[in-house]
């Protein structure tokens, strides 16, 4: 009898400890709804905005849930989970911004006409109990807090010149491989990035110019960064390709 009581006490202790650990675990936002949207509406990096506008509920519901995350909950997550979440919020909010104004030829048509960063200065991001801009999210949080140059292959501003939008959400457990895949995909788009051995010139997306500081701060550092994907030399010249601001819409 005493043995059974001791065994029962041990089991109860184990169950209690497990329950305490579970209750202490920080809440995470499921990517199920966002994955549903991306898998159904994004093909080859382009978005079917017609159908997405027709059934936007999963996108809105995911953003609603993401907006309930507190700073304390967010701070308790591992680094890659935090970065994946912010990338997802940026991309999902951009999708909603386009859907809210669709049809539109370019995201640059949105916002104040006199402000070249009009759409990125709109307060459309709901996060941590307040409303902020896409610029606040990227320039004020993602870039300074994580120092990860590969985010520029993951953040998609609804333009064809952007990196291709993934058909899946970013996940902290797989973030490194997802960012590597985005880097490979973006640099493989020859109309954006290519090497010309005959002239010893690297033709690169303006993304590398706009965010040069994140890639080492010099053209030589940019060339060293892309060298693992493109056959370039660090002493080559660099020319910037044209950036296509037309909407990243499928079928257009």
Give a verbal description of the structure.
This protein is mainly alpha-helical. The protein has a domain at 27-190. It has helices at 2-24, 32-41, 49-54, 57-66, 71-75, 79-101, 134-146, 175-187, 207-210, 219-226, and strands spanning 42-43, 46-47, 123-127, 130-133, 194-196, 201-204, 237-240. Mean pLDDT is 92; it is low at 16-23.
| Total count of strands | 7
Helix content: 40-55%
Strand portion: 5-15%
Q: How many DSSP helices?
A: 10
Strand arrangement across the biggest beta sheet: 5-6-7
Oligomer: single chain
Write the topology of this structure.
Elements: H1 2-24, H2 32-41, E1 42-43, E2 46-47, H3 49-54, H4 57-66, H5 71-75, H6 79-101, E3 123-127, E4 130-133, H7 134-146, H8 175-187, E5 194-196, E6 201-204, H9 207-210, H10 219-226, E7 237-240
Parallel strand pairs: 6-7
Antiparallel strand pairs: 1-2, 3-4, 5-6
Helix pairs in contact: 2-4, 4-6, 6-7
């Amino acid at each position: 009898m005493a043995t059974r009581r001791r065994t029962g006490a041990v089991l109860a202790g184990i169950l209690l400890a497990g329950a305490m650990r579970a209750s202490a675990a920080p809440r995470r936002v499921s990517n199920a709804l966002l994955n549903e949207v991306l898998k159904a509406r994004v093909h080859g990096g382009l978005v079917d905005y017609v159908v997405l506008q027709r059934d936007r509920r999963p996108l809105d519901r995911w953003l609603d849930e993401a907006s309930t995350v507190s700073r304390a909950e967010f701070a308790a997550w591992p680094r890659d989970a935090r970065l994946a979440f912010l990338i997802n919020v940026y991309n999902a909010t951009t999708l909603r911004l386009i859907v809210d104004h669709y049809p539109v030829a370019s995201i640059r048509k949105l916002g104040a006409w006199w402000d070249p960063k009009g759409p990125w200065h709109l307060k459309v991001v709901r996060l941590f109990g307040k409303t902020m801009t896409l610029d606040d999210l990227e320039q004020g949080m993602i870039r300074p807090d994580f120092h990860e140059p590969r985010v520029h292959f993951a953040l998609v501003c609804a333009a064809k010149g952007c990196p291709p939008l993934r058909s899946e959400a970013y996940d902290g457990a797989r973030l490194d491989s997802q960012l590597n895949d985005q880097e490979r995909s973006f640099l493989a788009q020859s109309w954006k990035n290519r090497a010309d051995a005959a002239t010893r010139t690297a033709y690169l997306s303006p993304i590398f110019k706009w965010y040069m500081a994140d890639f080492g701060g010099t053209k030589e550092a940019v060339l060293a960064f892309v060298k693992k994907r493109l056959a370039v030399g660090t002493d080559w010249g660099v020319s910037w390709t044209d950036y296509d601001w037309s909407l990243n819409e499928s079928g257009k």
